[in-house]
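The data layer described in this paper is built around a simple, fixed record for each protein. Because each token names a local backbone shape, the row as a whole describes the fold. We quote a single record here, exactly as it is kept in our systems:

***
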Amino acid sequence: MGQSPSDPEHPIARLQELWRNIHFPPESASIMLIAKMIATIKQATDKEATISSFSRFQQTTTNEDEAITHKLLGKQFKNQLDTVLPALIEALYEESIPQWFTAEGIRSLFALLGTNAQGVGTSSLSVYVHNCDDLDLKCEEREALDSFIDQLYLDLEKESGSFLNCEGSALYALQSCCNHSCVPNAEITFPDNNSTMKVVAIREIQEGEEICICYLDECDRDRSRHSRQKLLRENYLFNCSCEKCHSQCDDPDVTSDEDDDEDDDEAGAEGMDEDCCC
């Protein structure tokens, strides 16, 4: 699509600004990823083949078998999606995909991104931290370095927010084919510090063994089974049955303090939306 339009009144610029005012990063990038999907179809010689390539990605908003609904269908998001739809139609309507420009269509698109999009972590800080992880250090040196990095993240977070290692999001056919496990045997990496993604083994993988990645970040995967299941249900529409979750199936359904805080934030956001409707 090229550079962002310089005219702030351009329909795409207005669409981008509208979504940016609704969402914090990295979600603020999602509307432009949808715009690029539409633009790819607009510019394609074989539109049907291009549309088919997107249809391979999971894009349902509800898992009817397990009665799970994507969190994007929550009341706190309804007004946001209703607001952005007319702007999307004005900016990028495409006759070959009219189903995308409906209330259910836009929900499906955001569900597609929510369940398939991969954060592109290409920041120089991320590369530096990964390189530090590979250093052969004595215990006291490792502790000092880890303490320094922790403080560095805290200092930078004050200036740029908590999304230091995610510069955007993208759709990758290979990554979307990998199932989840809370004890994965592979991970997603960006070793070249650009948008080129690689799936790398993190332990020896036996012949015939399924390659699994973890859909949760490093902090979330250390939470309780109850907390992990909650995140996976809301964002990916499934209940995890990996070996770690199976081994912890008798653990009490204890929700972490972080989840309690998030629930409070969501309740507050919902209340704000309702106030705006009055």
User: Anything to note?
Assistant: The two ends are 38 Å apart (CA to CA). The chain is about 50% helix and 5% strand. The longest strand covers residues 186-189. Confidence is low (pLDDT under 50) at residues 269-278.
